[in-house]
């Protein structure tokens, strides 16, 4: 089921959390809501779930075209997974998952509930822990119980708030791959909030990038990474060098028109030896960090002594035979410039 | 949005029950607390200022203020000192029976004040468990003081007996205020990391310097809060004091007792006037406690 | 103000590891502190408690038990139970309602409301009784209303007068005064507990389709039950033991408006010490039970933390 957000505004006192945000979440896709903290992404998720009201007189939330703006959370048929899971601490895993079925007006028969719960626990690979209490589970297990509980009510949309935020790095990686595979199995429209760009780019079908109460860009991971729509997106997704366009004449930058800034990713910088007649931005190599498959070079521009980072393969590094304090030239394979007045 | 609009349009809330719970809370609070309390002030407003002033500054009332405030202060100070030590011992030391002692600290909260009053009397009366030895000692001590420093009316100030005299008021008020300092200090002490003291030690501080310059400043806000709570409680206490104070006019009558006396003579105006003075004192203390608690949390804001 | 400071233990921190540290006070200081602390506890807490039971049994078990054959003693026990049976549930319902609106919602004047809930702790028990006399006594608003020539609601005046419905120097006054002095206990316990627990579980229940009442009964109540119990036992201890406030509104009519603490006073003033301490011993047992249950709840809270 698709979700449409139309002109939603949310203010807390004088603080604007969402400034007339519109968004269409595609049916059956795994969509990431990505942004730094305070960008409004969790507020948007909670408004879609019905856990927060948008400001009076602002727009609508539609589920598959149907206006649900005034439908209470319990009747929107959304599954919501909270950042800290919000498992009912006095109930076992089984009881947690069964809760949504037991509080229904037409409560299914006991055997049917048990059957559904066990199928869900099997789906999230927690069958053996049905009688445990939340306090007896690891973070990753709690996360999956929360997921099973949200799925028990057969939601049409699944919403996850920082689903991996409270986990340690290793479990995080495992679980996000698991979530990707899981989504491929159930094909439920899923929207998850994250501040981790690596996480969003790795598992989402589509990424929605938010900043300061607004949506900056929507697209597939490749689109947003390769063609950032704004300086903010450029800087938020991975490392980037910001160079004055004036300095780049002849360095291969897009169309340096004398003003503005040019954005270039470290791996889009080509490093060549400094030789007479060669084109490119002259720079002095200051440090080489060669631990890892890629070598990171820290360079200093000759013109203005500002730092530039470049990434080249180890093989390339060996071929060039570079050393610290060598004079080199930099060429840009791919770069992007934005009008100067574009606020970052 | 104009302010009137904001008021007239109820804000939609996600969790249910706001109107019901707040409505019930306000109605119940008004019926049980606010309306009866306002009665005291409204009735006192009916007195002429001259009458009011004459009542609350009558010599017998003034003596009772001095006794109530003075002894409450003294009892709270003693509780601050001993409470600090007791809290330290309960948090930092392990000894058999620690849990029982810890539970017993709350006894003054749980034991009815009248029972506490007659029990303390049974102990400190001239023929009591400890009184049979301590009472003559106290009397002799006060007489000796009077010989050495005759300019002060020691017998009037300190009393000549333990029970049925001013020291009895002190004993009762110390009892009722005992848990406050201990219970406000305990959680702070438990959160106080021993690393703090170890850090001080590695920086070359000796134990005395560590205690006075590192540990004590951390405890000070809680200590002051506990002290104020004990003081406020002692000020209003009645049940335990009346049994042990002897209640001699112009000497060992506490202020709450005077309110009762006036009521027994059907002098409602007099009782109300004194009550208003005490209420104002209590509210000032309550305000002070709130400010202290805000102040004491100022280091802990993240 | 009792609950103001008895709140922290429920939050439940395990006590800091003690004793094994190198950096600590020298041995003589530790011994001195222990001695001072234990003497203080013995003199002010253990001794009075022992005195109650020893004095009650001074003339033997027979005399002790005889004290409870007195019909006035029995009626005092009954009245104490009645006052607690009304005041505790009333304040329980209030405490739950107040903590729900304070912990789960934001509204203007919230901090003022919290302060107002604390008011009864700041008021001397004697004054707590006095204010009810001022409202309901013969000289008070209610009494004057009963005598008024031209009341606003004549039928109510007639109805009350016909039934000789007294409040002061009667049971309703005792119940009201008891309710006043125990007013904040449950609310004071629940507000910080519910604030600390947050509302995520309630929101989760809502997204799963639970109604408001289902959310309250199945999610909120199980989460606060120990805090609730804790507040109730403290509230009950104070309700059964209150002296000052009840003394003012009671009128001390034997067999009618005497609660247990008031009965203790009467017996004591009649030099009937054994009976006075015998009734006291029941109250002391109640206090011990309260302390035991309180420790039990704290122990549970620490364990689950």
SSE blueprint:
The complex is a heterotrimer of chains A (344), B (302) and C (305).
Chain A: E1 3-12, E2 15-25, E3 30-34, H1 41-49, E4 60-63, E5 66-67, E6 78-81, H2 93-102, H3 110-123, H4 139-152, E7 157-161, H5 169-186, E8 189-194, H6 197-203, E9 206-211, E10 214-219, H7 221-226, H8 231-236, E11 241-244, E12 261-264, E13 269-273, E14 281-289, E15 294-301, E16 307-313, H9 314-320, E17 327-332, E18 336-338
Helix pairs in contact in A: 2-3, 2-4, 3-4
Chain B: H1 3-8, H2 18-45, H3 49-56, H4 59-92, H5 98-104, H6 107-110, H7 113-124, H8 131-148, H9 154-158, H10 166-191, H11 194-202, H12 207-236, H13 239-244, H14 255-264, H15 268-296
Helix pairs in contact in B: 2-15, 3-15, 4-10, 4-12, 7-10, 10-12, 11-12, 12-15, 14-15
Chain C: H1 2-6, H2 8-11, H3 27-56, H4 60-66, H5 71-104, H6 110-122, H7 125-136, H8 141-147, H9 154-162, H10 171-181, H11 185-197, H12 200-207, H13 212-241, H14 244-250, H15 260-269, H16 273-304
Helix pairs in contact in C: 3-16, 5-10, 5-11, 5-13, 5-15, 7-10, 7-14, 10-14, 11-13, 12-13, 13-16, 15-16
Architecture overview:
The complex is a heterotrimer of chains A (344), B (302) and C (305). Chain A contains nine helices and 18 strands. Chain A has 344 residues and is an alpha+beta fold. In chain A, the strands form four sheets. Chain A has a six-stranded mixed beta sheet with strand order 6-7-8-3-9-10, with helices on both faces. In chain A, strands 13-17-14-15-16 form a five-stranded antiparallel beta sheet. Chain A is elongated and about 85 Å long. Chain B has a domain of 188 residues: Orthogonal Bundle (MetI-like fold), CATH 1.10.3720. The two termini of chain C are 26 Å apart. Chain C has 305 residues and is mainly alpha-helical. Chain C has 16 helices and no strands. In chain C, helix 5 packs parallel to helix 11, helix 5 runs antiparallel to helix 13 and helix 5 packs across helix 15. Chains in contact: A-B, A-C, B-C. Chains B and C meet through helix 2, helix 4, helix 5, helix 6 and helix 7 of B and helix 1, helix 2, helix 3, helix 5 and helix 6 of C.
